[in-house]
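This week, work through this protein record:
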Amino acid sequence: MSAHEPTTTAAEGSDDEISLLDLLVVLAEHWKLLVFGPLAAGLAALGITFVMTPIFTATTRILPPQQQQSTAAMVAQQLGALAGIAGAATGLRNPADQYVALLKSRSVADRLIERFDLLRVYDKQYQQDARKELEGNTRISAGRDGLITIDVEDEDPTRAAGIANAYVEELGELVKRLTLTEAQQRRAFFEKQLEQARDGLKRAQQALAAVGISESVLKAEPRAAAEGVAQLKAAVTAKEVQISAMRGYLAETSPDFRQAQQELAALRAQLVRAEQSDPKASAAGVTQDYISRYRDFKYQETLFELMAKQYEIARLDEAREGALIQVVDAAVPPERKSRPKRALVAIVTTLATGFLLLIAVFVRRAWRRAAATPDGAERFAAISAALGRRLT
């Protein structure tokens, strides 16, 4: 066996050498096709780009209104120790994402189609077809810097700039309308809650006065404990009321709704800790009945204050004209086309054609070599017969 090993190695090296030479022979035989074929295809592609309609891209950048502090956070800041709860919520999305979704909404698209007569421009019969065409010609994205970029492509540079700027105008109108509707709902809701809190405060005040404890007793230690628990209870109730109101105009997956739920959970946990440390026995001559009534009075008083603040905030939001959208870069008619990129088209076409021709040449060579062998000829004959039966 050892005597035959050098012969086998030499044979393998000879086969490899022949295979490499065969490849070189194939390239030498078809060098004109492999060189001039891709060049011709690249020149043809370059020529086609000269007759294609140029496309222009207009760009505008805006700074959307920053996420405003929620009503719950404003109220919590008035409670001193509870102020940190509102800021503890994490995982909120970039506020610009919401405005990107509004820009891509059907309401904005339909207004633009109407303003610029895009049914005629895009030669479409149906509104939904024009909407898809507009969506394909528009790119809207939010960067990490908080800016929203709107790119609009069109054959007319002036129209491209006009549509890009019109996106900003329609967004402002839509945000203004949505903000006003939401504020109206919140104002009406908190107005009813404020009336209920006012009635509850009157009843608690009358019940406290019926105890007959003098004002000097209010300086006793149980007052502070009752006051703290009452404020926490009122904060929990106010948060529950706010979440109930938010269900009317926000989805449960929205960042503001999630934040409100996290704040409610934090308030409830703090209330449980406060109640566990609350003294149960009377102190300094103050009876447990008085502590209970005083706590209820402070609860109703704090709840009334919270409802009053939320009601005032809702009124201010209703009177506000809407969120301010700041235009960083207004779109102007572009001076240069954005596509087709002639050089890139020619280079890519040349390389792709060369690669395909190279593969075709080697496949053709392999096909012929396989057909020249008896086994290969027999297989090709079987394939031809099978195809013939299929066709007949």
Q: What stands out?
A: Residues 5-52+341-383 form one domain. The beta strands are 56-63, 138-142, 148-154, 326-329. The mean pLDDT is 75.
